[in-house]
Specification:
Length: 187
């Protein structure tokens, strides 16, 4: 029974941390990242697709990404999708409409501050999600106690164990954000 609560907590907290890692990867820190462009949605073939699903992506330099659509007829839709994205990319169509070179803007001091604000918002969202999941698990522990399936000592021990796990994951979240902040500030 006790292992069930710990397992549930770790599973939920792992999902939160993994989601945060993916979100942080998508934040532009001055270097080109294929994930940033690959996740941009475009309307082609009658539905919404990600750029990475309809083209190959490669790095063209520290601030450039080369996009080569498999179907050259959708190059204009890809261009529109990139220009509509909040990334602020400049787009150049090359090689007789066969590929796109997307360039990231240089990171200014002001944009670094904005990026760090976004990072802190993501950190707070992850912490709130941790607390929310902790409360759900704590309620389940209390329900088990009220149903007399666990004793009072076990209840307090479980709550203590869950809090210890929450503290560990909070530290992990802080470390993820600190690494990204260092990346942003050292460009």
């Amino acid at each position: 029974m006790a292992d069930e609560f710990v397992f549930e907590a770790k599973k939920a907290f792992d999902e939160i941390v993994n989601f945060l890692k993916e979100e942080v990867k998508k934040i532009h820190a001055g270097r080109a990242s294929i994930e940033l462009v690959g996740d941009i949605g475009i309307d082609v073939y009658g539905s919404r697709n990600r750029i990475s699903n309809v083209s190959s992506l490669s790095l063209g330099g520290p601030r450039e990404i080369i996009i080569e659509p498999w179907d050259k007829s959708i190059i204009k839709e890809i261009e529109k999708g990139i220009l509509k994205s909040p990334l602020g990319l400049t787009v150049h169509i090359e090689d007789k409409d066969s590929r796109i070179r997307a360039s990231f803007p240089a990171v200014t001091q002001e944009s670094r501050r904005d990026i760090i604000k976004i990072l802190h918002q993501k950190k707070e969202q992850a912490r709130v999600a941790l607390r929310h999941n902790r409360e759900k698990i704590m309620k389940k522990i209390d329900e088990q106690f009220r149903a007399k399936t666990i004793g009072e000592d076990k209840r307090f021990q479980l709550k203590k164990d869950i809090q210890k796990i929450v503290d560990e994951y909070t530290i992990a979240i802080d470390e993820i954000i600190k690494r990204k902040e260092a990346e942003v500030l050292n460009i």
